[in-house]
Amino acid sequence: MTNLLVLAVNVHVGLLFGICVLAFLAGYMVRSSFIQACRKKIKDLERDMLRDNARILELEKEKADLLRSKQ
Predict the structure, then answer these.
(1) DSSP code, position 36
(2) What is the pLDDT of residues 15-71, one digit of tens each?
(3) CA distances from 50 to 42, 53, 55 (A)
(4) DSSP state of 1
């Protein structure tokens, strides 16, 4: 009777361990995909900022050229 109880406990511990490993892997995959999406979003925003700043610098240069030509 005790051998059956020990076997049942071992099976349950193994099952619990397996469930924990699967839960960890699932959480890791979800988290890594979330981080990857955030990194992509950051790169897109940085690209947009660089483009906008380049446009601002271009307009400032045109403004300076116009002011210089008026003098």
Answers:
(1) H
(2) 889 999 999 999 999 999 999 999 999 999 999 999 999 999 999 999 999 999 987
(3) 12, 5, 9
(4) -
Report field, pTM of the whole predicted structure over 0.70 = no
Residue found under tokens 């030509």: 69
Q: How confident is the model at residue 13 (pLDDT cuts 50, 70, 90)?
A: confident
Beta strand residue intervals within the chain, DSSP E: none
Q: How far apart are CA 57 and CA 39, in angstroms?
A: 27
Instruction: Please state, in angstroms and rounded to a whole number, the distance separating the CA atoms of residues 38 and 9.
Output: 43
| Cα separation values, 11 from 7, 21, 25, 40, Å | 6, 15, 21, 43
Chain position carrying tokens 């699967």? 22
Measured over all CA atoms, what is the biggest interatomic distance in the chain, rounded to whole angstroms?
Answer: 104
